[in-house]
């Protein structure tokens, strides 16, 4: 009597058929389809019911896909084999099934009628975009591998189709990391199907090789260059090669690969739109590892000027922190390395470097104050430990009823003498550092004097910590050596190596 209720949208545009499919009630679905078919006997009425979309532009088949109900998917497709082609724009059932990793549903849709499938996806994407996102590396990998292969054989147009950001499936595949240096499996699949996609950029001018460089996918870059060596010279909208991108994104492994590959020597000195080479960007980032990789290649030119007339040496000069700072920063080391290697300045007057704005005196004093408070705790602690160790010596003391009672039992050994010297130096250095901290933290002294005393403190604090490590290693060696000399030697060596490594890292 009221057949229009079958087509009446309820909440968010859902029809009764949407609700029945979502609930997985196949009997109710058959009942609703039977009611639609019983009126005028026109098959188009049933087709119209099945193809009705809600506010999300989804048919009842989308709900069957989302719930992963294979029986429901087959039921709907048996009634309307072309249902998988709708909607013509937006997310198709196949795209949704791949995105949700419903491998059984994907295979069902593909086996039912692969020629009536829609590959369209959201935001201008297609099923291949989704397959790349859900490819090897996820739990969906085993089933999607073969499907991606079939999909590529079915239509190469999918490989060059761009989404709303201009990204092709190869852009997505380029961002997937492989094992060690190998390319990702899905990236190789897409590239082999259509190498032309390697020369398509997105709306930001980035090519797949730039995407791979930004995430550190070395294997994908190697694959791209093997397939198309000329892709190394592709530049994005900012004129950057993949080497520029790798430097900016701090992908040291990519930079090392480019520096070791003789076929890439021509891109080492290529300049971007601002005239910066990869070495300019490495200096700007202050990454010492990437800088060393570039500096170690003789093909890298050290005195190329950028758009501002600055060479890497000029850039390093500007990067050095003004005012109070630690002299062992990466910026300082980079500047020293460039100077030692013979780098030259560009078309800039040297007096302009001295016009850099210094931090105001108030900020400098705050730095001194904060640093003094931090170091004072460590300095007093070291002094306390070394003072206590002088009267609690390793091995203990001789009994009073023995000769030389009350004296150290290990006295007279070379290791004992070395322990006492190291402990005494640690105490003296920490004591001097404490006095220096008292002066650097006192407002009675001028700011320049406070900075001077703080510089002295750093030197004596490093000496104190080094001697403390040495005293600890020697003390342990004295106690263990008589019963386990190898263990004692290994332990002492490990402590000294740890001390050296810590000092180098802090530097």
Automatic annotation (TrEMBL):
* ANK repeats, residue ranges: 12-33, 274-307
GO CC, alphabetical: plasma membrane
* Entries under InterPro entries matching the protein: Ankyrin_rpt (IPR002110), Ankyrin_rpt-contain_sf (IPR036770), PGG_dom (IPR026961)
Q: How does it sit in the membrane?
A: Multi-pass membrane protein
* Protein name as it appears in the record: PGG domain-containing protein
Q: Where in the cell is it found?
A: Membrane
Keyword vocabulary terms for this entry: ANK repeat, Membrane, Repeat, Transmembrane, Transmembrane helix
- For this protein, the parts annotated as crossing the membrane are 375-398, 418-440, 452-477
Boundaries of every PGG domain copy: 366-479
Sorted alphabetically, which Gene3D superfamilies does this protein's record hold?
Answer: Ankyrin repeat-containing domain (1.25.40.20)
- SMART domains, per the entry: ANK
Q: Does the keyword Transmembrane helix apply?
A: yes
| Biological source species | Digitaria exilis
A Pfam family of this chain: PGG
């Amino acid at each position: 009597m009221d057949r229009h209720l079958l087509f009446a949208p309820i909440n968010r545009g859902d029809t009764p058929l949407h609700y029945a499919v979502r609930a997985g009630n196949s009997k109710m679905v058959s009942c609703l389809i039977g009611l639609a078919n019983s009126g005028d006997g026109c098959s188009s009425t049933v087709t119209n019911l099945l193809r009705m979309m809600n506010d999300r532009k989804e048919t009842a088949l989308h709900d069957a896909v989302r719930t992963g109900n294979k029986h429901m998917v087959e039921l709907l497709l048996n009634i309307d084999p072309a249902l998988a082609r709708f909607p013509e724009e937006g997310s198709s059932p196949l795209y949704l099934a791949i995105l949700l990793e419903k491998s059984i549903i994907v295979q069902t849709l593909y086996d039912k009628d692969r020629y009536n499938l829609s590959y369209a996806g959201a935001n201008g994407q297609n099923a291949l975009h989704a397959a790349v996102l859900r490819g090897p590396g996820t739990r969906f990998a085993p089933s999607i591998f073969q499907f991606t292969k079939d999909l590529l054989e079915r239509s190469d147009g999918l490989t060059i189709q761009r989404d709303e950001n201009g990204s092709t499936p190869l852009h997505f595949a380029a961002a997937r990391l492989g094992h060690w240096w190998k390319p990702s499996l899905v990236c190789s699949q897409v590239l082999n199907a259509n190498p032309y996609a390697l020369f398509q950029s997105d709306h930001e001018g980035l090519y797949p090789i730039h995407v791979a460089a930004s995430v550190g996918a070395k294997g994908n870059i190697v694959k791209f260059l093997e397939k198309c060596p000329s892709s190394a010279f592709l530049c994005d909208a900012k004129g950057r090669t993949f080497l520029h991108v790798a430097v900016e994104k701090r992908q040291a492994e990519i930079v090392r690969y480019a520096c070791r590959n003789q076929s890439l020597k021509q891109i080492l000195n290529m300049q971007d739109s601002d005239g910066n080479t990869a070495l300019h960007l490495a200096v700007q980032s202050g990454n010492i590892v990437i800088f060393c990789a570039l500096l170690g290649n003789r093909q890298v030119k050290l005195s190329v000027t950028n758009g501002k007339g600055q060479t890497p040496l000029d850039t390093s000069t500007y990067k050095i922190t003004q005012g109070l700072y630690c002299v062992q920063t990466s910026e300082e080391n980079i500047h020293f390395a460039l100077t030692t290697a013979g780098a030259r300045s560009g078309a800039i007057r040297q007096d302009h470097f001295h016009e850099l704005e210094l931090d105001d005196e108030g900020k400098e004093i705050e730095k001194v104050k904060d640093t003094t408070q931090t170091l004072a705790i460590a300095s007093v602690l070291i002094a306390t430990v070394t003072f206590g160790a002088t009267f609690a010596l390793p091995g203990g003391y001789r009994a009073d009823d023995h000769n030389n009672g009350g004296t150290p039992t290990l006295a007279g050994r070379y290791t004992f003498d070395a322990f006492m010297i190291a402990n005494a130096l640690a105490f003296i250095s920490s004591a001097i550092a404490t006095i220096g901290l008292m002066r650097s933290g006192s407002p009675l002294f001028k700011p320049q004097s406070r900075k001077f005393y703080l510089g002295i403190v750093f030197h004596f604090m490093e000496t104190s910590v080094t001697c403390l490590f040495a005293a600890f290693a020697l003390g342990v060696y004295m106690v263990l050596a008589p019963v386990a000399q190898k263990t004692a030697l290994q332990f002492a060596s490990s402590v000294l190596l740890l001390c050296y490594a810590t000092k180098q890292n802090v530097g």
